[in-house]
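step: validate -> pass
step: tokenize input -> pass
step: predict -> running
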Amino acid sequence: MTDQESTYIYGLVDPRDQRLRYIGKANDLDKRLKRHLKDKNPCYKTNWIANMKNDNVVPTIVVIDRVPLLEWAFWERFYIARYKFMCCNLVNKTDGGEGTVGAVCSEKTKAKMSASQKGKVPSKETRRKISEA
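step: predict -> pass
step: emit ->
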């Protein structure tokens, strides 16, 4: 899988207690971490990061998986659900897979996206990862 064909599912870890607190998707991990640190939208994640900054620390970004680019939304949802099941206190405000931060899709767009995925079979690698998990 080349870089153009894949992307990362990553986690943000609180260095104060080494707990995973956020899961996301990024093509460039350094740029994504910088955007998290600059984000001012009020939510649990930005409050958590602001609290860390008050303690003079920032989250650590870790790679959870490298996945096919066309399957990132599935894997982001999968890992968020998996880590929530494992009792991680994640600050994600959604179940994942929505796209860019703040993107809101109309019901018509959601229906089109759903219809476009009907009948598609996950790759062998995707099925293998699900089986292993």
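step: describe -> The first strand starts at residue 6 and ends at 14.
step: cleanup -> pass
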